[in-house]
Amino acid sequence: MTEDYPRLISLAVHELRTPASVVGGYLRMLQRDTEVPLSDRHRKMVDEAEKSCARMVALIAALSEVGKLDEGAIGMTRRPTDLFPLIADVAASVHEAAERGVRLEVRGADTGAVISGDEERLRTAFAAIFHAILREKAGPCTVVTERRLAQDGGKSAIIIVAEESGVQAAFDAAPGPFDEKRGGVGLSLPLARRVIEAHGGRLWSPAVNGAAGPAIQDDRTARSTALIAVPLGS
Questions:
Q1: Residue 217: what pLDDT?
Q2: Distance between CA 26 and CA 53 in Å, rounded?
Q3: What is the largest CA-CA distance in the chain?
Q4: What Rg, from alpha-carbon coordinates, does the chain have?
Q5: Band of pLDDT at residue 153, cut at 50, 70 and 90
Q6: Domain spans of the chain?
Q7: What pLDDT is recorded for position 66?
Q8: Nearest 5 degrees, angle CA 199-CA 203-CA 204?
Q9: CATH architecture assigned to 79-231
Q10: What is the Cβ-side half-sphere exposure of residue 30, based on CA atoms within 13 angstroms?
């Protein structure tokens, strides 16, 4: 990372935030204007434009947070947090794939993964990962979030998010890159990775054929699988 990178991100955020805020403000004024009511057709157009502008403002805010995390300008609120019940709570709130018959099921250890962590940022990070994985599933299936303690005496929490039949294969495979540059999820995945790394952890997907060591069979499976390791007490 170059010295200019944080400054470039900060400048981009500043230059984008001001016009986006102005546009959003004028659109909201149009929505609330009672002197010259909009026709149904024009109201629908303004409503859609305001939604898109709000989405742009949210992306700008996320870009700002990415820059601050990379710069080390955001401190984590540290307090004892058990990751395993936290993950179960987050998974229970993720429902957007239910209409396609995609189920998210939490398995494994219920407790015992206590870290010194920022609970709210971790919740947001895991929610982003769950959303991204479930989006990859087109039809009925069960995605399992399995919670394990590391086999070397339980010094790390391991979380595997994979289709039911592939949990162990994902765990056994050599680590590969997690695809965080995918459409439809904004900057939530780059933010999730940075939050996990700020807790001393890492996020990866199983390696595919051609990589050294055990591997899975195809890129699509890797894209819909995530593994997270976080050291206990971190």
A1: 66
A2: 11
A3: 70
A4: 21
A5: low
A6: 4-71, 79-231
A7: 86
A8: 160
A9: 2-Layer Sandwich (3.30)
A10: 18
